[in-house]
Amino acid sequence: MSMRSVAIACQGGGTHAAFSWGVLDEILRTEKQWDSDARPERFDVCAITGTSAGALCALMVWYGFAPKTNLPGSGSLDEAVATLDRFWEGFAARELVEIMHNKISVAALEAKEKGMPLPAVNPYGIVDDVILAQLTMLGARKEYVDFQAMLGNACPDFETVDWAQVRMRAMVGASEVRSGAETVFDTRKNQEERNIKTPISASAEHRWRRRLPFSLEGVAASGTLPTVREAEEIGDGRYWDGLYSQNPPVRELLAGTPKPEIPDEIWILRINPQNIDREPTTAEAIKDRENELMGNLSLNKELDFINIANHWMDKYPDLANDKKKVAVRTIKMRHQTAETLRMPSKFDRSADHMNELRQEGVEVAREWLGRWPDGAGTYPDDAGY
Question: Which member of 32, 124, 162, 265 lies 3.0 to 4.6 Å from 327 by CB, making a disulfide possible if both were Cys?
Fold first, then answer.
């Protein structure tokens, strides 16, 4: 029997991450089924990382697996699936005022994409607060309009997590505004501060990198688009979306991490297309492509270095006794889907839109897992279309 430890890294990209929701559902259900069948080739999800909407996916999976001291017997694969499903179903616009607000918002973004000048809303001003307050008065759920309420509602027992029993590692990426520091909020840091695990090598952190304890505030920071929401204040830092630094975090899975904790494989859930068929020619399409490039290029640099390290270990095996080769693989949307999605759809919280992406994620993951491991491909050959 061959059991491979796997870390899953979830890109951000607004509600397009509903695709990752479907992929994760299928991966977790398959892991359970293959364990039950005692399949010769199996995998164990040992870590999950994410940025922005990908951080929401990572949080929900990790939280479902995490044991809680006030809930005996809690923490399981089934709970991870249920938590993930419940979050995304609740994230969708459900009440009438939410559905109307969502339709108006998407229509406005589509008009802006076509060149119509629209006024910008300053997230630091009073107008945004007034709009959100009015939505609440008209019947919108608090978790629809308030990011922190949404996370607290999805993870009500976060403060009772039994860190001594936590086995899965989770990390989410954010960007510290003033120092420019690449930041990860890491569950291993929580365990280090409680003397459950020995601190990892100091080489994983320096002036331009921060590694902080995992928290709901850290997840909120990872999804803080500066044009939509004020910077998240945590300690002495002010944080924006992790897209600007890592989309999603990968380096920390290896840097300074003890060899037994390094995964055998890293699966990238890529929702920002590596390549596109046509050059964007409108201002909004150009901005959207800039957003995709910003995340993909930084990610590719991290993945390329893993491939270089793997090559060195093959070339100089005598010097690699304390090192570990890591296979990197990509799971991505179908080409046709990636080509038809546009920037406004990243903000579309309609249930139909997200369920369509979820279903595609389930189907793509099912087909991909049917080819894993030998026929699943590896990065960089599997990253593009």
Answer: 265
